[in-house]
Amino acid sequence: MLRNVLVRPIAGVALGALAACSSVSYTPVASQSNAIDLSGYVQRADTFVVLLDASGSMNNDDSGRPRIYDAQDWTASFNNTVPPLKFESAIITFGKGATGTCIGYGVASQLYGPAAYDKADFASALGSIECAASTTPIVDALSLNTDLLAPGEAAGAVNDPGQVAVIIVSDFNWDDPDAVADSLTLLRKEHPGKLCLHTVKIGSDTEHDAMISALTDADSCDSAIAADDAASGDALTNYVANTLLSKVEYETHSVSASTLFDFDKAILKESGRQELAKLDQLIKSKGLSVKDIDLVGYTDSMGSEAYNQKLSERRAQAVYQYLVSRGINGSIIDVMGRGELDPVASNETEEGRALNRRVDIHVGTLR
């Protein structure tokens, strides 16, 4: 479970050269992005933790401004785009960003959380960074992150972290990549199959790109980007969606109402049960990748709109009851009736009306 721990520097693992700077008085600016259409996604990450580099190298000027400003802006833009779902979250700085002084060796510090994600509180914490200075204790930050996400019943513990996204925002000017790799190995071991690492490079330097590639696994849920490539607009929206969510793709199975039901009835007949049994086996063959099922009942235009609406709802509900009785998880099934709306053929002919009397079953699986 996520838990609060005492933060203290760990001797012998701070990286980089000492640097000092004056206090950074800067309010991060969030770029505009588009809201994520949640109808095509399911939540993948239960917890996300941002590890933010506030060491001396982040004072280097790129295009006339310190890299720490770019890092804060990018993280603010990320925060602004996070969809309104239930996450646990935290920010950990490594350097001197949140220690009250810009002098001495860098430390890893909890800037925010761990807590139930709150967009305003996250933004406020991000704007409290005082400076970018000193050494680069990324190993300490990873160790602190491991402690925060450790399972247990410690005082102050909150929900189990579940699926975790760790997002490192840095210029990656690190001196000991082997120690970092060892820390990441330990972190992954603590959360087997449940941790995704995402690196966000600040600045245009390329000398550390090989190290970044070595840290992330291209064949897994890991990712590596330059901040400029997902700074605003659709690029940022897609990045946040791909980091915290999973895309759901739907295939539609349309079953004729005449196969499922007798005329004007909503009780499944034997031919309907046989047809749905085949669909049940198909759904189960996809296993845990099935995340959403939508059942939508339709009628033709004969009769009143109100009557047809109720009939379509009862028929969709009958299909729902059957699938649940076969062991499909009812919590992932949504049921609705559309009555005589959305015809697929003309209601002027018997053949067309027969096509319009149907139940569409949309099965959503993870991409």
Write the layout of secondary structure elements.
Layout lengths: L40 E3 L3 E8 L6 E2 L2 E2 H15 L6 E8 L11 E10 L2 H8 L11 H11 L15 E7 L6 H14 L4 E7 L7 H7 L7 E4 L6 H12 E12 H4 L9 H16 L4 E9 L6 H21 L7 E5 L12 H7 L1 E9 L1
Parallel strand pairs: 2-5, 2-7, 7-8, 8-9, 11-12
Antiparallel strand pairs: 1-10, 3-4, 5-6, 10-13, 11-13
Helix pairs in contact: 1-2, 3-4
Describe what this molecule looks like in 3D.
With 367 residues, the protein is of the alpha/beta class. The chain contains 10 helices and 13 strands. It has helices spanning 67-81, 119-126, 138-148, 177-190, 209-215, 233-244, 257-260, 270-285, 305-325, 350-356; strands at residues 41-43, 47-54, 61-62, 65-66, 88-95, 107-116, 164-170, 195-201, 223-226, 245-256, 290-298, 333-337, 358-366. A 6-stranded mixed β-sheet has the order 6-5-2-7-8-9, sandwiched between helices. It has a 5-stranded mixed β-sheet with strand order 1-10-13-11-12. Strand 11, helix 9 (305-325) and strand 12 form a beta-alpha-beta unit. Helix 3 (138-148) packs parallel to helix 4 (177-190). The protein starts with 40 loop residues before the first strand and ends with a strand. Residues 1-22 and 153-158 have low confidence and may be disordered.
Give me the count of strands.
Answer: 13
Mean pLDDT: 88
Termini distance? 28 Å
Number of helices: 10
Low-pLDDT parts are 1-22, 153-158
Proportion in β-strands? 15-25%
Briefly characterize the structure.
The chain has 367 residues and is of the alpha/beta class.
